[in-house]
Amino acid sequence: MVNLTIDGKQITVSKTATIYEAAVEAGIKIPVLCYAKKLLPYGACRVCLVEVEQMKGRLIPSCTTPVTEGMVVTSISDEIRKVRKTVLEFLLVNHVIECPVCDKGGECDLQDLTYELGVNSNRFEGEKFNLPTDEVNPLIERNMNRCVLCGKCARVCDEIVGYGSYSFINRGFETKIATAFDRGLDCEFCGQCVSMCPVGAILPRPFKFKARPWQLREVDSVCGYCGNGCTVTFGVLNDKVETIRYNDKNGVNDGNLCVRGRFGYSFINSGDRLTKPLVKKGEQLVEVEWDEALKAVADGLKKAQAENGVGILSGARLTNEEFYLLKNLAKLIGTGNLDHSGGECYKGVTEGLLATLGICSSTGTFPQVEQADVVLSIRSDFYETHPVFGMVVNQTVKRNKAELFIVGDKNGKFGKLPGARTLLHKPGLEVNVLNSMSQVLIEDGLAVTEGVEGVDALKKSLAAYTPEKVEATTGVSAEEIRVAARALAGAKQSAILLAYGLPYTAQSKEIAIAAANLAILSGNIGKGESGLYLCGEKANSQGAIDCGVLPSAGGMGAQQMLEAAGQGKLSALYVVGEDPMTSFPDRSKVEKALMTADFVVVQDLFLSPTAELADVVLPAASFAEKNGTFTNAERRIQRVRPGVPSPGEAKTDYDILTLLAARLGEKVNFTGPAALFAALADEAGYTGIDYEKIGPQGIVWGGETVTVKKKMLVFVDGAKPIAGDFLLLTGSALYHSGTMSTRATGPQAVVSEAYVEFNFEDAKGLQIVDESVVSIKADGIELKLKAKVGKRLPKGVLFAPYHFSEARINSLYKGEAAISVQVSK
Predict the structure, then answer these.
(1) What is the CATH number of the domain that holds 60?
(2) pLDDT digits (tens, 9 = 90+) for 98-155
(3) What gap in Å lies between CA 294 and CA 285, rounded to an integer?
(4) Which residues span the domain enclosing 596?
(5) What is the tens place of the pLDDT at every residue in 283-308?
(6) Model pTM?
(7) Where does 238-373 show beta strands of DSSP type E?
(8) 608 in Cβ contact with 739 (< 8 Å)
């Protein structure tokens, strides 16, 4: 620690702090334009100049100057005020003054400083900028006439996002922020530059001219998309979410958001939302009152349970409290047929980690990854599924100089990071590569085996997975396998990442076991703050597992339910917060089940393809209209808060399940989410956590690093290469998450329809160009999709995102790692 004095106030701070950070800690205000706490010090604007006694009165930038013992600082004086005022005058020489029509008005740092320092005239004259406004893209507007050259947009895009869209170009008075070749912005559209800009140079187009900041009511909640659990702050006006506000003070994401979190909110306000219950009468779904709909559901479920039984299929975006009610409803009905997220993709957690580590969750927290010196990412789609966690990895590599290895079947964004190595394998062979890495650790004597069970058996089984043999099967260099394995074993702190979700069903359990074996043998498990992270696709995937939304003993899982319903052996299906017709593998299986079941209930926000086949449709609330908790992929329990009322007569899943339970003969006596949370706490492993004490940072159950219950090595055999000239992969696109984002105008403005991605060499051979329509065939099914040509995919590999219902990708995808297809123009 270091002792210093600022404006006569004695302060003790960390020796790594800057003068500005010390002042903030002491409650002393120093103005800044170019500083952001999550960015590296820069010192461009010179607004934060202060005087240090030991430097003979010379004015220095407080945001870049580290504190020293005994330092005496003056943060404000007549001279400092005069210099700051002069700096502002220089900035305003070329800056256009259009505050009345600038959306930043009311929260513009330049506007605030101009008022604070009394800059009501300018001693300097110059020509105002007259640069064209960039409105090429649908989400971000760039007006460089308002830019103050703080560089925050370029720095956040490079340091955190890892994309590098912006840079300074030209020199002197002609200097400006621009994209490559000064073209229109074409990037990830995460909006990080929007959040960083201190003036109105970079603005969110969907919010343009909607409201002034002081008109908005701000409500902190948790993003409803992926398992990152990012804090989002709703900007609400007239009971409508008008924007997502920047918030780096609360939550675990340090203000970072992806395109979905920042611009994917508009589905909340969609005019297509269901507002009244629907009951099928004849061949038509017609609007009815809630009493009639609930009676129909209760009577239908009772009748079905008395015949061949009821199956309940849930999504993973309900709150923990709603999951608890859903599980109790299943008990009330008398069915053990309860499952979520298709029933297969999460088995890496519930079965894989349970078998090897005795737990059903990730072992560490996201901030711990920032200090890792080696990171292994399994599947190249990890950044696409969890972009903000991906930004943590970006910083780990760029700032901590961590080594990054990617085991994947395609090239991805991680592979572009400095020094990153991609172990590019043939589709479906992740287990083979991970087994080979474990074999190297054992063979080289690097394996951590103390207190580990099953070492000898695994060593014997892995004899067939030498790097040379695996190279012949997978295409991954034997040397690369050895380098990655040895780096992981030699790491002081490591992180192993694996995403799971509906389009990643194949070998979910096997890949997780192979990853856990590697984590145990490399010392990742039990080594300080190292961690193994299995990250779910949906906002409350971990909560669904914690709350036990799983088949009970003797009950059927999701795929078994669909099979039984399709054969007439299950009378009813109750689908809550999911669209299996679009998102589940094997569309024909799902459709047959829904068409054959005697009674189908769907509870959702929209009249989805699944809801269209229902007998009763119940209008549900979005995450922005709920009160409760989500548990993210690092086991962090966070409060979900309502920002707006539900449209029309739509109700929260909490209210619907409570009303339905009453119809089935059980009155739910809980007084609200807090009481429900207390009831579920012991069962879910949340013992000792008080709902009312869950603050802005949430509470991590099990501690920052969870204690594993065992270290058991379990052998899983690798797969055989999949034959075919063209292999089709499916998965997540960066701009979408599940199916809900296809209802949001932000993500849709960037990627509005499905596509099939080709390697440029394959495309050239087939005479296919961007946007041309191609035919993809397999098993007698033909899909017509627009082509996208690039360098990301290996030769002979195709990719199509699964989010879009009209594309019917799941007509081909039935849960395999890859599908052999025929391609023609």
Answers:
(1) 3.10.20.740
(2) 899 999 999 999 999 999 999 888 898 888 888 999 988 899 999 999 999 999 999 9
(3) 15
(4) 280-341+546-700
(5) 999 999 999 999 999 999 999 999 99
(6) 0.95
(7) 240-245, 278-281, 284-287, 310-314, 338-340
(8) yes
